[in-house]
Amino acid sequence: MSLLRDVRALPALTKRLLLLAMINNLGTGLIMPFMVVYVHNVRGLDVTVATSAVAVSSVGVVLGAPLAGWLTDRRSPETAAVLHLSVQTAGIAAYAFADRGWEFIAAALVVGLGAGGGAAWGAMYSASAPAEVLPVVFTTNLTGANAASGLGALIGAALASVSHPATFRGLYLADAASCALVALGIAVGVRTGARSEDRDKRHSTDGASYAVVLRHPLFLAVLVLGGLLFLASYAQLESGLPVYLTTRGVVTSSGLGVLFAVNTVCVITSQLLLHRVLKRIRHTRAVTVAAVLWTGTWLLVPLASLAGRGLAALAVLVVAMGLFAVAETFYAAGMPVLVNALAPENARGRYNAAYSSVVSLGFVAGPFEAGAYAGGPSGTIFIEVLAIACAVVALAFGLSRHWFRNDAWCTDPDKATSVVTDESADRAAVS
Predict the structure, then answer these.
(1) What gap in Å lies between CA 380 and CA 374, rounded to an integer?
(2) pTM of this structure
(3) Judgement on whether residues 221 and 106 belong to the same structural domain of the protein
(4) DSSP string, 66-105
(5) How far apart are alpha carbons 237 and 232 in whole angstroms?
(6) Neighbours of 207 (CB within 10 A)
(7) Of 150, 184, 208, which one is at a domain's C-terminal end?
(8) Whole-angstrom Cα distance, residue 14 to residue 12?
(9) DSSP readout, 123-178?
(10) What digits encode the pLDDT tens for the residues 37-95?
């Protein structure tokens, strides 16, 4: 099988990182569905404590990402990852022993600050593998994350019991242990050689300021468009979509479970079936395809509402979730690869941190948007606006051949390494 052959051909360091990421996601899956249940049903606190903890955690990610980017460029991505995973370990362990609302909020902030280290993972992947195989790396990471977190959720569901509160504490401690294990694995077994080769250049970069990012208009354009696409897609998967469907009685809670299971299966299946396309497609074209597929997803969702309840509506939604999953796979093959292609080597951490911050802002803003519009009488209009936003991004990236060629977009001194033309991306894709 082509995918397995390509994964086996990846550098040993890259495969080690992918395995460590799967262990981390397995731990996350153990507790992923249970925050509201744990806080409200087990600890007896108001449900708003759980929702506030989720929001505060997202804010923590926004605050933690710039530090991760700075530390990545000043020291190394491994240093940043180990520090942030250690912080995240402490926060998750604090969940296990929290009894009061403020304790959950404080723990959530610590967890978020630790999770902000995701920028370091992007830099480690990019430094560990040749540029031409990064689409394989990032799509494999997406598939591994879905499979591992899904397996973790199944294990957690089998072990958790409201009548036995200690089971929840055990799951949170198990997640904390997985974070600590991954931090140890990176500290002991990960050394990205590209970082040491650029050590002198990295330390000479004006204190690792984020001004280098702000002086790169082409990257800022990609960041704005990518942020808009993320806000209109991923950020609505667990907020806008469930709110819209449940408030209209289109599906039950069990129906939602089926849809999310379909999403997970389709993400894994799409990488297997589309692997040859994903590893050759141009970065910008991959993002364009993702935006088009997400546009189709949001156009199908209101049709399910019109179909009423029952199997007809569920069938339409299964197709929509399948499209959403394929879009996720194309997005993973395009956007993170594009971010790292645009990043100068001595600022890779800050570029990944800027992207991570935009993603986190989407997760913060998405639930607020959903709460304000998705469940009310303007819910269908809200869904249509999401489709329009995705279509706008698809058009912009579809025309990217023109604005990627324009040197005026790039004022960064390292533009020779920070701008990728469509022609160079094509050559990398087929090499």
Answers:
(1) 7
(2) 0.79
(3) no
(4) HHHHHHHHHT-HHHHHHHHHHHHHHHHHHHHH--SHHHHH
(5) 9
(6) 10
(7) 208
(8) 5
(9) HHHHHHS-GGGHHHHHHHHHHHHHHHHHHHHHHHHHH--TT-THHHHHHHHHHHHH
(10) 888 888 888 878 887 887 788 889 889 989 988 998 888 899 999 999 999 999 999 99
Closest CA to 125 of 288, 349, 356: 349
Q: How many domains does the chain have?
A: 2
One domain, residues 134 and 16: yes
Which are the contacts of 302, defined by CB distance < 8 A and separation ≥ 6? 380, 383, 384
Please identify which residue in the block is written with the tokens 């403020």: 102
Domain of residue 423, residue span: 211-431
Joined together, the tokens standing for residue 150 give 């899904």
Q: What span, in angstroms and rounded, lies between the C-alpha atoms of 396 and 428?
A: 22
Amino acid (1-letter code) at residue 428: A
- Rounded distance between C-alpha atoms, residue 293 and residue 311, angstroms: 23
Together in a domain, 185 and 268:
no
Contact between 255 and 321 under an 8 Å Cβ cutoff? The reply is no
Could you report the per-residue pLDDT of 141-167, keeping only the tens digit for each? 988 888 898 888 888 888 888 888 899
| Helix and strand counts by DSSP (H, E) for the chain | 23, 0
Taking a C-beta distance cutoff of 8 angstroms, is the pair 386, 236 a contact? yes
Alpha-carbon torsion angle 402, 404, 410, 413, nearest 10: -140
| Tokens 């992947």 found at | 125
In the listed set 157, 175, 208, which residue is the last one of a domain according to the structure? 208
